[in-house]
Design brief:
- The chain has 301 residues and is α/β, with parallel strands linked by helices.
- It has a single domain, classed as Aldolase class I (TIM Barrel, Alpha-Beta Barrel).
- The protein contains twelve helices and eight strands.
- An eight-stranded parallel beta sheet has the order 7-6-5-4-3-2-1-8.
- Helix 4 links the parallel strand 4 and strand 5.
- Helix 10 runs antiparallel to helix 12.
């Protein structure tokens, strides 16, 4: 497999959910179906074992099997990235050789949660991972989950310090931070949206795409929006944004991946089961999601 670069982050990446059966086991048949649904919809790459995949509730053995099943289902058609995060740097490094090195294009790694390290600590954490990793790394800034934001100066420092870092999934919601990164990053470093809602404005600023939750359900529509935006067809992109907005709003109203699993179950792609501490979305939110699904389905017809 050729080494992945920032060019491979152009378009729509999908943060895959992990389907479960009613008795709480991983539903590998549904996972295979979901992978093929995303590829048929035109997605550029997949991310397994991320937050949306409920990886915090998967055992190490389950993580390995889930990743291998995704790679097997993809059959080399598009790149597969694996989530690789944590607040214990040495433990993160020790997990690297346990993951499928042949089928993985690279890793998506969130900044450490809970410990609240300084920016220097975050820098050293990532540099230690880069030194141990044989694969490229996508940084992930998601302060709503980690408890603090990775400063743009830290991101740029990492981008300059090692070619292992090929981009960042930016989910801080701070457009000025994103603009600073886009303006000053080296050519081999891309910024992609980590927020479905903000994908269009971030592409307008220079982002190259998105790692999306919503695209689990509607890869065709979201890929169309992103391609239109990247091709400077703002009119078409705006039309699609209006179509997708109600879905984005309903999807994240209560929890992720509760919202997207509700949508996927309504589409008969997976069962909507989650592992505690997550629970299914409320009946009110289910109705909102189903109403939004109908709007998009009508557009796709």
């Amino acid at each position: 497999m050729e080494q992945c670069t920032s060019n491979d982050l152009r378009g729509v990446g999908v943060a895959l959910v992990t389907p479960f059966t009613a008795d709480g086991l991983v539903d590998y048949s549904a996972l295979d179906q979901l992978v093929n649904h995303c590829i048929a919809g035109g997605c550029s790459y997949l991310v397994a074992l991320g937050t949306t995949g409920e990886t915090a509730t998967l055992s190490m053995d389950e993580q390995q099997v889930v990743l291998n099943k995704v790679i097997s289902a993809v059959k080399g058609r598009i790149p597969v990235f694996a989530g690789l995060g944590g607040n214990n740097t040495q433990e993160v490094i020790q997990r690297i050789p346990l993951l499928n090195q042949e089928g993985v294009a690279g890793f998506l790694s969130s900044s450490p949660h809970y410990n609240k390290p300084t920016q220097e600590g975050i820098f050293r954490h990532y540099m230690a991972i880069a030194e141990a990793s044989p694969k490229p790394i996508i940084l992930y800034n998601v302060p709503s989950r980690t408890g603090q934001s990775m400063d743009s100066s830290t991101v740029l420092r990492l981008a300059e310090a090692s070619k292992k870092f090929i981009g960042i999934k930016e989910a801080s919601g701070d457009l000025s931070q994103a603009m600073r990164i886009i303006s000053h990053a080296p050519d081999n470093f891309a910024l992609v949206s980590g927020d479905d809602f903000l994908t269009l404005p971030l592409i307008a600023l220079g982002a190259t795409g998105v790692i999306s939750v919503a695209a689990n359900a509607f890869p065709k529509s979201f890929t169309h929006l992103v391609r239109a935006a990247l091709n400077y067809d703002l009119n078409e992109a705006q039309k699609l944004q209006v179509v997708l907005n109600p879905f984005f709003e309903a999807l994240f109203e209560e929890n992720n991946p509760g919202g997207i699993k509700c949508a996927l179950e309504s589409m008969d792609l997976i069962q909507g089961h989650l592992r505690l501490p997550l629970i299914p979305v409320s009946e009110k939110n289910q109705i909102e999601i189903q109403n939004a699904l109908r709007i998009i389905a009508e557009w796709e017809l």
